[in-house]
């Protein structure tokens, strides 16, 4: 394990956050601007040098090219770079790690910080550098704690091994989450067991963020920087403040089926009687329907267009990164598209028209809000769908929330501005395509608008039963509402106890490594990775596989038309294939001793694809 | 006698829909929810009780009644101290199935002396007006099968629920007391521990 750790730390060499606003004049020392530097034991002079040089180069290049710099490559280290307002982040990894992945990792780090601390500027105004340094260190260590080196290449959720678990238990977990949602203050949730996802209602990105806190409290139970409510419900329940971006919130608020109708449900006043209701049952139907006026909402089929064309895209070059990582900073209210955008939508223009349409719709809503208050109950088709689909009137809760935070926030002006910002960045997406060389990654404005896009305070509620954790994103007022707290607690307690007992009793998975082959199968939509690379059994044997995977992954990202590839050296050959949403890598162990030079007809490398198809079937990976 | 702390495992068995989950919820949280989904596998809640000066944690295990969940629930029968056989008075079939439930329990819980094991029988849903199982029939079955105590309950309006669970506790404690008489009271009771260990491992 120690060997592995050292390997890991070598892969992520540097990380820093530099605040340019602290260094304005000639005489200002660079170190004034260094908010956090990893490794923390780096000599200050070296910190100065690296921060000063990288920030300088990045600024210079971005001004010359009038496009933001996303990566800087040195000889032995590559840096992903993010600039936002006066802040400058850089994450340096070894050259082995694909560039897309380094960028993703950095985005993920920043997202994590914003999720738990809110806006970066504000955090540094309110807290000491030291306490925030601890946060960065925690996120970094979490990021590096993946089970194998593959976690540097693919941002993935660790899920329970579903082949070992009765599918009924997954259903049970999903039902627990639904039962919690009967309390309108509960937005969404996920259930984790021993640091792995059992069931989640959140996007993979949001789930990953939630898991950081879970693993933190799991490992260091004593450490309590956050307000933990050890109420009558016992020490098993805790809560902490978190921050969602508008797009995340919209995604959560939209109905399970028509996720991308989110923008319509935002500004809406909840009627008081609704708010006071503590629970909903499956048979309840929301009594208030409105917002029928917006034209965009009348075309759900078109909105659900995340389908087949995703693959041949020129965005796919960028997107595995952007789509997976950019979730929070991007205020565009098209979460679904982002989620699934492992590629471009070929009907891009249509999409954008739509996007704009829905913004407008949003505006109208906002402006017509009061009027709509009166016209409630005209029963739109849409608002009913959530109930039909067992969503138990999600829309309701959503609208309640929307009103709440808008109310609490500065109000209408604010949200209107957002929307404008979002719209603008949409426009820039299009332009950004021209800058492929410089920007491999998401549209430049995403991060510029990060600061402007308001982060909405929410609360992360956690209920732990031994190794099992129920994590819910709830409205902050839930924690002060003891009746609702008890309702949520009691509605789930027995089932959580039971689920925990079941999962604990489940036999541990059979050791995956069969010795004959190594594989990795990544699903970019669900952000899941299936692999038999254990990482533990002295990662050295798997290292060539990881390197080859890294190489092919980069190629897949860079070459949109590339679907299959075999790479080979004297001792090993690897087959890689990708589809719209998945990438699969397969390497046969054992000698290929006679394979060198120009491949002959008999070269065993050519049999890899069929072997992969055959072997991986039993892992549930279908390459046919 | 010093207050001893122990956990009693009580398990609710019976056909799907007879109200096992509702009984548990009514007893532990005093709430009733008409819209509960089928229980999948098993669930449990703890309730602290003080009986005759003894602190007892009553662990009530609720199980899935449907046949398709059988393989999920049966591993958790082991280590039960008492079994509550439950049927619904408005469903004759659920009453007829009591025998099967008893057999299933004895088999999977690996009960060595079934005739001595404390069963309690609950006829739930007495609030419903159309009964299919008469009080006499139920009593007769209990009489014939080992003189089990019988309670007519309603989780909906809380009739007899607490009484029934308390009876279960008394039955178990009475069993324990019998064995206690055989051993000096201040000795350490060893037999409880391994049992709970079994639960973890099964």
UniProtKB/TrEMBL annotation, chain A:
One of its GO terms (cellular component) is BLOC-3 complex. InterPro entries: CCZ1/INTU/HSP4_longin_1 (IPR043987), CCZ1/INTU/HSP4_longin_3 (IPR043989), HPS4 (IPR026091). It holds the Pfam family Intu_longin_1. Residues 516-613 form the CCZ1/INTU/HPS4 third Longin domain. Residues 13-118 form the CCZ1/INTU/HSP4 first Longin domain. One of its GO terms (biological process) is protein targeting. Residues 411-422 have a biased composition (Basic and acidic residues). This is HPS4 biogenesis of lysosomal organelles complex 3 subunit 2.
Automatic annotation (TrEMBL), chain B:
Its EC number is 3.6.5.2. It comes from Kryptolebias marmoratus. The keyword Membrane applies. It comes from the Eukaryota. Keywords: Cell membrane, Cytoplasmic vesicle, GTP-binding, Hydrolase, Lipoprotein, Membrane, Nucleotide-binding, Phosphoprotein, Prenylation, Protein transport, Transport. It catalyses: GTP + H2O = GDP + phosphate + H(+). It is found in: Cell membrane; Cytoplasmic vesicle, Phagosome membrane. It is a lipid-anchor. GO terms for biological process: protein transport; retrograde transport, endosome to Golgi. It is an enzyme of class 3 (hydrolase). This is small monomeric GTPase. Belongs to the small GTPase superfamily. Rab family. Its cofactor is Mg(2+). The keyword Transport applies. GO terms for molecular function: G protein activity; GTP binding. One of its GO terms (cellular component) is cytosol. Pfam families: Ras. InterPro entries: P-loop_NTPase (IPR027417), Small_GTP-bd (IPR005225), Small_GTPase (IPR001806).
